[in-house]
Hints:
- This protein is α+β, with helices and mostly antiparallel strands.
- It is built from six helices and seven strands; from the N terminus they run βαααββαβαβαββ.
- A seven-stranded mixed sheet has the order 1-2-3-4-5-7-6, with helices on both faces.
- Strand 2 (60-66) and strand 3 form a beta hairpin.
- Helix 1 packs across helix 3 (43-56).
- The two termini are 14 Å apart.
Amino acid sequence: xxxxxxxxxxxxxxxxxxxxxxxxxxxxxxxxxxxxxxxxxxxxxxxxxxxxxxxxxxxxxxxxxxxxxxxxxxxxxxxxxxxxxxxxxxxxxxxxxxxxxxxxxxxxxxxxxxxxxxxxxxxxxxxxxxxxxxxxxxxxxxxxxxxxxxxxxxxxxxxxxxxxxxxxxxxxxxxxxxxxxxxxxx
Length: 186
């Protein structure tokens, strides 16, 4: 097996990150999002967005590799107050110490090889070094694979839900929360 690593993304990774995002969303979310939403995803727009994020933040982006292949990525940074607030919009007491893992994707053909865990651990270490204490992430309620991943990482649904408009179809998400310190199994 090739060596698997995680490293901070650099601007030249943006095209590959966009490719991973589009391939993964189209494979994993075809039952959750309308086809026209998935078909409308544009690689050049996603690449520009990721290049901007890598260069200017506010999230930090991490890239998982296996051998010569880029296989997944994660983005994490300080959570905006409205993301960590209670369901009624009340700020939580530790709002200034909450990290948001806004995305964590591993291309399906590279799944179940530990890349997600390594990405989460790298993001967690970086967020702890930045002075953040716990993390949150929003996960589609119907995405049982992702919910299972977060639960295996020790994160739990905190009871807060939101509903997004996904191309005219409601997409309900649950907020997961947990530690930023992870012990990886070898």
